[in-house]
Amino acid sequence: MNLFRLLGDLSHLASILVLLHKIQTSRSCRGISFKTQALYVAVFVARYLDLFWRYISLYNSAMKVFFIGSSCYILYLMKYRYRPTNDPSIDTFRIEYLLVPCAILSLIFNYNFMPTEILWSFSIFLESVAILPQLFMLQRTGEAEAITTHYLAALGIYRALYIPNWIYRYFTEGVIDPIAVTAGIVQTGLYLDFFYVYFTKVLQGQKFELPA
Amino acid sequence: NPADRPKDEL
Question: Does residue A12 lie within any of the structural domains?
Fold first, then answer.
């Protein structure tokens, strides 16, 4: 464990707590893409089921349980408790355009052609693009509540911090994971436009608004 | 071994 990865994980943890806080305090999931949240459940379940046969550390297991549990809970909140505040008519991204290519890529690029490793690859590829329905929704509505942008910023910073972690690990441990690194760079890249508006507007106290 | 990816990352 190094500082970049620890801060990345904490940023990921924080993003989910911010999202839960937003939903609970406003009693609304307005502005949140159900499709993106459902994709995260698929990502976490596909990747973290190794919880049952591979023990790394208490930290590792606790985080995996938290990510699976919290993402399922968020889906429950959106689908049941705050269902009237969820507007599917603006959440129109076609997720089959993400699922099918990720499934194909995971069959081609994996570290071992076995179900668990293919699922791992699939989760890495899917995570890298899972934010697209959310960003697409943001693009459509053109604006977002500040708290929603804090959630997205924390989520983007998480994977961005994994990049220096991989560079650090390459030089200190000699390990390199080309699948995770490639997908991680793509994932971070998808946030660049968002980061630009977030850092130049929201953090200066202005409203998050995209140019028309 | 191609399966030697670091398995401690989340």
Answer: yes
Interface test with B, best of A177, A179, A182, A187 (most B CBs within 10 A): A177
Kindly list the residues from chain B whose CB atom is less than 8 angstroms away from the CB atom of residue A56. 7-8
Asked if A79 reaches chain B (Cβ–Cβ under 8 Å), the answer is no
Rg of chain B over Cα atoms, rounded to whole angstroms, equals: 7
pLDDT digit string, tens, across residues A85-100: 999 999 999 999 999 9
Cα–Cα distance measured from residue A152 to residue A140, given in angstroms and rounded to the nearest whole number: 16
- d(CA A35, CA B8) in angstroms, rounded, equals 28
**Could you report the predicted ipTM of this complex, rounded to two decimals?**
0.88
What is the percent of chain A where pLDDT is above 70? 100
Tally of structural domains, chain A: 1
Query: Residue B3: which pLDDT band, with cuts at 50, 70 and 90?
Result: low
**How far A8 CA sits from the closest chain B CA (Å)?**
10
Beta bridge mates, A121: none
Boundaries of domain holding A189: 3-98+124-209
Question: Which residue among B3, B8, B9 places its CB closest to the CB of A117?
Answer: B3
